């Protein structure tokens, strides 16, 4: 099947197009977004390694996309929250309100890199928040939570293409529920913090949303919507996202940890979430 090589970067990658055409075997070049993204038609996916090495050196994002593939060919976008749809790790910022961010952030980093069991590490981090007033969650949402660049544009493109959206997180419902309402998402799933007398207890209630749960929800919702596996996009950044990425037709690493980059079909390391839409422009 003929493929296009989509090239994009924060700094205009146009000076590198001739080299990339040679490396990929592409025949024709056209502009997707002036100064930002380009399409190299007739590229050979078997030349992925050479293109990857060059793009890594020059901080360029790339993807081999089947010619004619449209965003509307997909029916479901499943997204992680922390460091994917938003720029922060919510639990680290909650911990900062309690003076324990260094301890929590260190565990978070190792967990997302795949060095720690996610469920155990999450319980350990939540336990450190015992006694924190619930008002701290509102402060994190209002003062520190920012969307990943391009998030609103990607979601608008998904709505225009008839794609349903699921936000699923190993984080907390306090944030996913608010993002669902603010952004008009179709579904939101996350962990529930236990709160008694206006304070966090250091525990969670209900089913744990871990890597397997993320994949299970993707498969469940895919079935409910009557979609084939190849009609699902899943995107995330950490080891906790690997199983849902594997269950999707298109797995996207968003500013991914190395373990995710190894397994994702596409990695957006330098551009924003709207870079996903540009793959199909």
UniProtKB/TrEMBL annotation:
GO terms for molecular function: L-phosphoserine phosphatase activity; magnesium ion binding. InterPro entries: DUF4072, HAD-like_SerB, HAD-like_sf, HAD_sf, PSP. One of its GO terms (biological process) is L-serine biosynthetic process. GO terms for cellular component: cytoplasm. Belongs to the HAD-like hydrolase superfamily. SerB family. Keywords: Amino-acid biosynthesis, Hydrolase, Magnesium, Metal-binding, Serine biosynthesis. Its cofactor is Mg(2+). Gene3D superfamilies: HAD superfamily/HAD-like (3.40.50.1000). The keyword Hydrolase applies. This is Phosphoserine phosphatase. It catalyses: O-phospho-D-serine + H2O = D-serine + phosphate; O-phospho-L-serine + H2O = L-serine + phosphate. The gene is serB. Pathway: Amino-acid biosynthesis; L-serine biosynthesis; L-serine from 3-phospho-D-glycerate: step 3/3. The active site is at residues 80, 82. PANTHER family: PHOSPHOSERINE PHOSPHATASE. Its EC number is 3.1.3.3.
């Amino acid at each position: 099947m003929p493929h296009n090589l989509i090239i994009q970067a924060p700094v205009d990658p146009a000076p590198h197009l001739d080299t990339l055409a040679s490396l990929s075997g592409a025949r024709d070049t056209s502009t997707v977004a002036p100064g930002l993204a380009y399409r190299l038609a007739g590229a050979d996916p078997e030349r992925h390694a050479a293109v990857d090495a060059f793009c890594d050196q020059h901080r360029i994002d790339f993807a081999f996309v089947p010619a004619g593939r449209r965003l509307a060919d997909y029916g479901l976008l499943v997204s992680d929250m922390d460091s994917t749809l938003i720029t922060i790790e919510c639990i680290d910022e909650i911990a900062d309100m309690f003076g324990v961010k260094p301890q929590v952030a260190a565990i978070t980093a190792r967990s997302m890199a795949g060095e720690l069991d996610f469920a155990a590490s999450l319980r350990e981090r939540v336990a450190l928040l015992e006694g924190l007033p619930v008002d701290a969650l509102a402060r994190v949402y209002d003062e520190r939570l920012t969307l990943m660049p391009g998030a609103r544009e990607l979601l608008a493109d998904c709505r225009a293409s008839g794609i349903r959206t699921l936000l699923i997180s190993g984080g907390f419902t306090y944030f996913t529920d608010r993002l669902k309402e603010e952004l008009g998402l179709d579904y939101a799933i996350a962990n529930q913090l236990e709160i008694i007398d206006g304070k966090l207890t250091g525990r969670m209630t209900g089913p744990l949303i871990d890597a397997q749960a993320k994949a299970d929800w993707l498969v469940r919702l895919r079935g409910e919507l009557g979609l084939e596996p190849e009609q699902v996009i899943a995107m995330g950044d950490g080891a906790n996202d690997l199983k849902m990425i594997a269950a999707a037709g298109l797995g996207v690493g968003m500013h991914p940890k190395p373990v995710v980059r190894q397994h994702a079909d596409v990695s957006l390391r330098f551009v924003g979430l709207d870079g996903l839409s540009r793959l199909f422009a």
